[in-house]
Design brief:
There is one protein chain. The protein is built from 7 helices and 4 strands, in the order H-H-H-E-H-E-H-H-E-H-E. It has a 4-stranded parallel beta sheet with strand order 2-1-3-4, sandwiched between helices. The protein folds into 2 domains: 17-53, no CATH class; 57-169, inorganic pyrophosphatase (n-terminal core) (Alpha-Beta Complex), CATH 3.90.1640.30. It has helices at residues 17-24, 30-38, 63-75, 88-103, 118-121, 127-134, 153-161, and strands at residues 80-84, 111-114, 142-146, 165-169. The protein is of the alpha/beta class and 175 residues long.
Length: 175
């Protein structure tokens, strides 16, 4: 049986150079200006970059509970492990999570991260990922998922059976 071939290619979307220049004349980096122009954004006003456009935190489901869990974990010097997906938004969320926890007062020794191989361990917080987390030194007592976990019921239950609490942060919809 032959090997499957992977074919990757990139294509450039057409964009208006005038719109890109207009976008770049504000606070946008020229690369971002070209990307937005290629996606049909004609004005910086369409982007809603100001803080006033963010959702109020209290409108996010269980946000106050999550804040308390994180505050207590930081205060109690609990070992936290961020479990991220390997794609772009997962890697970004992992970096933001680490940086955010440090800004909230967590020591670098309290925080670690794990980016499991989706192809060998499955997607999300699987029992196989929990087994890998159990091997961490020191063993984490709080797992924080970023960009995954919303449908990981078996993995969450397995983590709890092994003495680990789980905080799920995921922009995907539950299954």
């Amino acid at each position: 049986m032959g090997r499957a071939q992977r074919v990757s290619f990139f294509s450039q979307r057409p964009y208006s150079s005038e719109i890109a220049k207009t976008l770049a004349s504000g606070e946008l980096h020229p690369l971002l200006a070209r990307l937005y122009a290629a996606r049909g954004v004609a004005s910086v006003d369409e982007l809603g970059l100001e803080l006033k456009y963010l959702l109020p935190p209290n409108t996010l489901l269980h946000c106050e509970d999550a804040a308390k869990i994180l505050a207590d974990a930081i205060h109690d010097q609990r070992q936290m492990l961020i479990v991220a997906d390997y794609d772009c938004d997962g890697a970004t969320a992992c970096a933001v999570g680490i940086r955010g926890l440090k800004m909230l007062g967590a020591s670098p020794k309290q925080i670690d991260f794990l980016v499991p191989n989706r192809f060998t361990m499955g997607y999300g917080l699987t029992p196989e990922v929990i087994d890998l987390a159990k091997e961490q030194t020191p063993k984490p007592s709080l797992l924080i998922t970023v960009d995954n976990g919303i449908a990981s019921h078996a993995g969450i239950d397995y983590a709890k059976e092994h003495g680990m609490d789980v905080l799920v942060t995921d922009h995907h919809l539950p299954s």
